[in-house]
Amino acid sequence: MTGLAAVGLRAAHVLETTVFGLDEGTTIFFVGLASAALGSVVAWTAYRGYVRNESRPMLFLAVGVAFLTVIPFVLSHTVDLATAATDATVLLVVTACHLLGLVSIVRSFRRPDTA
Amino acid sequence: MTDDEGQEVLALLDDEYARRILIAASEEPMSVDRLTDRCDASPPTVYRRIDRLEAKGFLDEYQEFDPDGHHYKTYSTRLERVAIEIAEGSMELDVYRRDEDPADRFTRLFEDL
User: Fold this and answer.
1) Residue B76: how many CB atoms within 10 A of its CB?
2) What is the mean pLDDT of residues A23-28?
3) What is the pLDDT of residues B28-61, one digit of tens each?
4) SS3 breakdown of chain A: % helix, strand, coil, rounded to 5?
5) Torsion over CA of A54, A56, A62 and A63, rounded to 10 degrees?
6) Closest Cα in chain B, distance from residue A46 (Å)
7) I need a labelling partner for B44 at 20 to 30 A (CA). Which of A51, A60, A75, A92 fits?
8) Cβ contact, residue pair A109, B113, below 8 Å
9) Inter-chain CB pairs, A–B, below 8 Å
10) Which residue of chain A comes nearest to B103, CA vs CA?
11) How far apart are CA A38 and CA A14, in angstroms?
């Protein structure tokens, strides 16, 4: 058995393991929910920073964090329910969200005084 | 708080323009221009009060960046409460300041990157 296959097997074993008596689907949901919740706190704080200080970088940061955490989580649990999308489509949507989020955060590095 | 410090706080709060600035800037961070409008005072008057209020830690200062490169400052009120207690032959004065809003701290840290 190659080392890679062994790693794969071990990963599969980890996935089958239940956490706190929950099956992996439920565990993934709650871990995702926790990141989405924390992400929304960060995004909301950044958005308030934008409103209170009229700081455009904070708006881009807020949008970026939202696209990295909250929006992929929501879409990954709604796209397949609302449409006949395959897992690959859902994965594409989530990955596209991550890309948009990172683009927004990179954009937030630009300071108005250097623009 | 020593007598001198208490004296300074009371003198500062006795000033009508200082109070107007504190009240206006408690809504949201405001520039000197906006404070001048809101307090119906001249810019030098507002600047003088801001210096005194900042020295006492009653105002927070933020640097704003304009797209056209013109930088200006905004101020928000940190002072929350002043308590004067008189009992048993002495007077005590306590000043309570608001913690900086996490959103403002986050903005300041991110903009300073």
Assistant:
1) 22
2) 87
3) 889 999 999 999 999 999 999 999 999 998 998 8
4) 80, 0, 20
5) 130
6) 6
7) A51
8) yes
9) 51
10) A49
11) 25
